[in-house]
């Protein structure tokens, strides 16, 4: 239900603002998702490295350290390429309001996540 309402609001907003569905609207959402997914995968790779670094060794060094580290390096390289080309991904010629907006939106969500989680658990953030 939430996904349907969100989609309806976004489509209605695009119609009201007379945005080109493919040339503008789709490219913006594609840019947001490209950065977001690769960033989440990189953070997951960091979590894997931390997890295996704090637990008793089990499995080979390749499985615990080398493969996750190589995966993280590859994801960070892709993230760098995406960020360098972000204006083109969102339909701009240089960093402008949409490119910066994508980064602000994702950064805000990243920072808001722990706050929301702590409030739901009743933990005070100091």
Automatic annotation (TrEMBL):
Instruction: List membrane-spanning regions.
Output: 28-54, 66-86, 98-118
Which top-level group of life is the source organism from? Bacteria
Q: Does the keyword Transmembrane apply?
A: yes
| Keywords associated with the record | Membrane, Transmembrane, Transmembrane helix
Query: Is Membrane included in the keywords of this UniProt record?
Result: yes
The protein, known as? Uncharacterized protein
Q: Recite the lineage of the species.
A: Bacteria, Bacillati, Actinomycetota, Actinomycetes, Micrococcales
